[in-house]
Amino acid sequence: MEATQQVEEGLLAGRGVVFSRVLEAVPYEGAGDKIKLPPSCFTELSDQGAFDKGPLHFRVSLIHQSSPSDLKNAEQNNRTTHAGVLEFTADDSVVGLPPHIWSNLFPADSPMVPMVEVSYVWLPKGTYAELQLVEAGFSDIPNHKAVLETSLRQHATLSEGDVLTVNHGVPTYHLRVLELKPSSSVSVLETDIEVDEIGADPTAESTNQPVLQPLVLGKSDSGVVAEGSYVYYKFQVDDDIWGKISSGEAEIDVKIESETQDGDTDLYVSRHPLLFPTQHQHGWSSHDIGSKALVLSSRDLGLGPGTYSIGIYGFKGTTKYKVSVSIRDKSKSEIGQQAISSTLSADADTVESQNCKHYIPSRSIALHEAYCRRHNIICQYTGCGVVLRRDEVKNHVHCEECGLAFQKEIIEKHKKVQHQSLDCPLRLVTCRFCGDMVQAGTSAADVRDRLRGLTQHESVCGSRTAPCDSCGRSVMLKEMDIHQVAVHQKN
């Protein structure tokens, strides 16, 4: 009687297809929720016509192996989730589980021989999902909706109670599935699903996930950073402020005042979507000993309106610090400098030195020129013009990539720290098509994509098609702008 009931339930769940196997679970590295099954499963499913009924979905249930004394805990260990299928290449009696399935079935230490039951089921298409953030900070990602959409695209199913893992560069975020419609488990293939996000549970245990603390312009914040750790802040540059900076009237002044004598920090700044600047991934940096200041102006490439992150790295010891960001008005100082310069140049008793370009009293100009040419030299690097003592010239070098001047002993550190954020193929960039943070990789293989400035990832990611908003025709994402201009005469 019980066996007959199970067959009937299997027929109902599988819409006429009955398939169930007990297999040994083996982990494999992969994204999403698609499992690997043995070839014999393909034959059994094919014989029942499962492939004619649409995408394959499976219920994956943990088989609890317990002694009689542990039977009372069996119910809480009877965990279940759902999955799609990637391929039928697993060894016989084995099922390959990606990290998403494995972590939801075995949240703690897995048993010596993890056994699971894999059953074919039919799932309705999902229409609604409510997700709760496990850690704070996911909403700080400027395009976090697109990042979540990209992650969900790797899934075939969703089940209530499951925890989704979303990677965004270095940080990893988790979202718990609280509610689904029209059922507790749904298919997310070829369907538009409405997603609601709710904030992290304030009573949940804190994690080591970095969090961006808001910093108000003109106000300081104090903190402590341990050696080898980061503390992060964020600040906003709106259109009005950027207007003053872009016109040269103002600069951004980022300051760290060290209040610990034996400790030291490094300062890293990035513009979003790079949320968490590090030694190896940042926009601007300062490595001065003790207190440090980083001045950003319209001359800095990559600067613009938007949100910025500050990373304070504990370089040595445990350091107590005070951090602030202010907008410094340059007009007053510049006006003062111009007035002084004008006075000097107009003074009939001064003459401009041909060597150092300083204004010298005319009565001593001959003596000054003789001394200056013998002891001083001007750096001939374009735009530099710094006056150096002759014994300092060898130690004064310019970076051939950005042109900034450094002492010779720290130029190599500058190149390693600063320019790997621009040139390293392992640096993280935001894909213009999926919105995710990915490794830049090498240049695109396709010549046309290289001319467009696409990275290796973007060349492949942009080959996906999407319907044109104007005509509905399927067009590759990387060709969409050309399509809009050529076909619909849009700018």
Please give a quick description of this structure.
The protein is of the alpha+beta class and 491 residues long. The protein is built from eleven helices and 31 strands. It starts with a helix and ends with a helix.
Structural write-up:
The protein has a six-stranded mixed β-sheet with strand order 2-4-3-6-1-5. A five-stranded mixed β-sheet has the order 13-15-20-17-18. It is elongated. By secondary structure, it is an alpha+beta fold. Mean pLDDT is 79; it is low at 1-12, 67-76 and 333-347. The chain has eleven helices and 31 strands.
Rounded Rg: 31 Å
What is the end-to-end distance?
70 Å
Instruction: Let me know the average pLDDT.
Output: 79
Q: How much helicity do the residues have?
A: 10-25%
Adjacency order of strands in the biggest sheet: 2-4-3-6-1-5
Supply the key terms.
491 residues; disordered N terminus; TRAF-type domain-containing protein; polyubiquitin modification-dependent protein binding; ubl conjugation pathway
Which helices and strands, and how do they pair?
Elements: H1 2-13, E1 20-27, E2 34-36, H2 39-47, E3 57-62, E4 80-87, E5 94-97, H3 99-105, E6 115-121, E7 128-133, H4 144-152, E8 157-159, E9 163-167, E10 172-181, E11 185-187, E12 194-198, E13 212-214, E14 220-225, E15 230-237, H5 239-246, E16 250-258, E17 264-271, E18 284-286, E19 292-296, E20 306-316, E21 319-329, H6 331-346, E22 350-352, E23 359-361, H7 365-375, E24 376-378, E25 387-389, E26 396-398, E27 405-407, H8 411-423, E28 428-430, E29 437-439, H9 447-451, H10 456-461, E30 465-467, E31 474-476, H11 480-488
Parallel strand pairs: 1-5, 2-4, 7-12, 13-15
Antiparallel strand pairs: 1-6, 3-4, 3-6, 7-10, 8-11, 9-10, 14-21, 15-20, 16-19, 16-21, 17-18, 17-20, 22-23, 24-25, 26-27, 28-29, 30-31
